[in-house]
Amino acid sequence: MIQRILSAVVALLIMIPIYLIGGLPFTITIYLLSILGLREFLKTKESKNELPIFVNFISYMALTFLVLLNMTADHLIFSIDYRVIAGLFLVLLLPTVLYHDSKIYSIVDAFYLIGGIFFLGTSFSLIIALRNYNMNLLLYLAIITIITDTYALIVGQLIGKYPLLTDISPNKTWEGTIGGTIFGVIIATVFYHVVVDPSLSLTILIPITLFLSLLGQFGDLVFSAIKRYYGVKDFSNIMPGHGGILDRLDSLIFVTLGFMFFISII
After folding, report:
1. How is the chain split into domains, by residue range?
2. Residue 167, class by beta-carbon neighbours within 10 Å (0-12 exposed, 13-18 middle, 19+ buried)?
């Protein structure tokens, strides 16, 4: 637990100044985090079979393009050219024929990479766009994930008895999920109402925050399912006590995507 706290403190000391500065430093930082996240995603896949170097290279190039596509955007309407989507499919599907060996690179590998790159690229690009649009709005989403995760852990350790999904995440409990959701919704709602927009009705804000809190926990379970499938404990050990970039940002990735459903009303 001490190691976990120290890692979190170090991460916050690095990220808070960058977050406050915003602009190019923040964009570069998020881009680097996305690259590290993709590296973890690829290494997890390679725990079963190693991917060709060329495929790894075009995966990083595709992610770079997606993340930086809207780097100067100051609005919350994510736009992407159909040619980008077509290119992503073509450059990752064609090698399945060129390598002539499914043990080296298969159609399953191709769709794993297409889905992962598009998913991560869109998510990290939206994080940059959100910071450009309203730094307090992105902070609201971060508070949802941080408070929910923190109190889910605390409540689960204190009174957790009933496992949530033992096959995916054996340490998670129903008590922790409920406790994390309650505290996450209360604290994030208060922050939004006081700092972001006091005029937004609580009858709208509370259900949205509740949905995002639950979605973040669902996202955590999705990434846990990926790890269990490939037989790894953590995506990496870049943050001792926490795991990798995807271990730490899994909830925020889903919350950011989920928030896009509400951009017209919040």
Report:
1. 22-133, 135-266
2. exposed
